[in-house]
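2024-03-11 09:14:02 INFO worker-7 job=invfold-0412 stage=load source=structure_tokens
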């Protein structure tokens, strides 16, 4: 009878250790997944802020160019959600101009390239796209 009780103790101890190991593994996995999820949310927020900032700076540059066709760009604009750079504007006069905008928000960089057919009497955009690397502008 003593042997049977002794074996029941080992069985109970092994069951507790096994359940404890599973509980620790599940808890660790949940903590890791929540950390990764929080990190992804931060990246998405910075990406959205960078997009908005790039659009704002593109519109700023278009307005400046519309008001003064000699506007050269090469400007840095800082706002609460990040910084954007209007690179030197390509082309001359009222036709065939290129705008390149780069925005930084957190660790996220967004780049937009806008190719204009004409500026006056109204702005006519040939292409307005997000790019990974500028093809129509230079990094001066």
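2024-03-11 09:14:09 INFO worker-7 stage=emit residues=140
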């Amino acid at each position: 009878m003593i042997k049977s009780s002794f074996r029941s103790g080992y069985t109970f101890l092994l069951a507790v250790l096994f359940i404890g190991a599973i509980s620790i593994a599940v808890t660790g996995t949940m903590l890791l997944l929540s950390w990764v999820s929080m990190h992804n949310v931060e990246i998405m927020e910075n990406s959205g802020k960078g997009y908005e900032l790039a659009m704002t700076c593109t519109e700023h540059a278009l307005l400046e160019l519309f008001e003064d066709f000699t506007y050269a760009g090469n400007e840095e604009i800082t706002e609460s959600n990040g910084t954007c750079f209007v690179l030197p504007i390509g082309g001359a006069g009222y036709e065939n101009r290129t705008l390149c905008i780069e925005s930084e928000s957190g660790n996220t960089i967004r780049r937009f390239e806008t190719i204009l057919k004409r500026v006056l009497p109204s702005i006519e955009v040939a292409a307005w796209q997000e790019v990974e690397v500028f093809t129509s502008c230079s990094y001066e």
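2024-03-11 09:14:09 INFO worker-7 stage=report msg="The chain has one domain: 2-130."
2024-03-11 09:14:10 INFO worker-7 job finished
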